[in-house]
Structures are given as structure tokens and as C-alpha cells.
Design goal:
The chain is built from two helices and no strands. With about 100 residues, it is mostly helical. It has one domain.
Length: about 100
Amino acid sequence: MYEQGNPLCSFFIRGDIMSVATTVYDQTCHVCETIKKYFLTFYYNAQRGKQLSVNRDIYDTHMKWDTEKDYHFNKMNEATNREYNEKIKRLWNPPLPYDGL
């Protein structure tokens, strides 16, 4: 395959093996990161559902005599949805690279 005494040829052969190993490792990490993001998205949506359910319980229990209870209920739900949408958005959008300033 390559000459035994030629260090230049052995360097390139070892370099090719390392680049293939690095590429396979990088692609494997990419797949794992994507799977992790899908699981976290599912988890965040489950948390959102629980929080919306708690908001409904608060609405039913503590806002019986409030005249603007529908307004406050909608504000709670909007804040919850905004919070979890932001979490999911941060999860899928990579951070901006640091420019050194």
C-alpha cells in the first residue's frame, strides 16, 4: 500500500483514517443532538400542557369573584405559551458565534 520507509506516505494514510473517524464521530453527534432536541421539544410541550392545566385550576378556584377573570386567564396562558415557545426556539436555533469583542 505505501512504502515502509516513506514517512510522507504514512502521514497521509493516517490522516485519511483520522479524518474518516472524525467525520463519523461528528455525524453521530449530530444525530444524537437532533434526537435530544426532539425529546426536549416533547418534554417542553408536556410541561406547557401541565402549566396550562394549572392555570385552568387557578382560574376555577381563585378567580370566582374577579370581574376580569377571563382577561387574567388569557394573560396567564399567553405568558405560558410565550415562555415555552421561547424555550423551544432557543433549543433549535444555535447561538451566535462569539466574535471576540
